[in-house]
């Protein structure tokens, strides 16, 4: 999918663009590649970490909600339509009913989105994206750094908190979820 002119797209035009090998997000009326031009695609650390998080979160989320990999979300940023595609999304059945079954972007702001820093991305860029998610109504954002083996949790109500090793990530918004960076990276095959 490549935008062929400098014309701004409508949301409907964005969703009607043909698919391809590149993942695009909708930002300021344009189809913008999720990954930078010099980065072909996510690598092993990124993919295995997504897999580990999906397994761990899906086990916790049974009967609570759905965990989805690379699911577009309909949000608003700076009073414009914004369609980001986080690496992982958790949305409870309270926000999006269990019987909702549509092949479309997530229509509500989820409780949690997770972004894994890819080669070519910086932590600073992820802080900006996390801030945009929170302003758009997402309750929590986790930024996962596979090199530092950390999870940084962002919420509107407090400063970001970074978890390392065996520190337990807990959150009243995600009841009974107890997870450590060590467990995630161990399952991903990144801890010796």
Automatic annotation (TrEMBL):
<dbReference type="InterPro" id="IPR012296">
    <property type="entry name" value="Nuclease_put_TT1808"/>
</dbReference>
<keyword id="KW-0378">Hydrolase</keyword>
<keyword id="KW-0540">Nuclease</keyword>
<dbReference type="InterPro" id="IPR011335">
    <property type="entry name" value="Restrct_endonuc-II-like"/>
</dbReference>
<feature type="domain" description="Putative restriction endonuclease">
    <location>
        <begin position="11"/>
        <end position="176"/>
    </location>
</feature>
<dbReference type="Pfam" id="PF05685">
    <property type="entry name" value="Uma2"/>
</dbReference>
<dbReference type="InterPro" id="IPR008538">
    <property type="entry name" value="Uma2"/>
</dbReference>
<dbReference type="GO" id="GO:0004519">
    <property type="term" value="F:endonuclease activity"/>
</dbReference>
<keyword id="KW-0255">Endonuclease</keyword>
<protein>
    <submittedName>
        <fullName>Uma2 family endonuclease</fullName>
    </submittedName>
</protein>
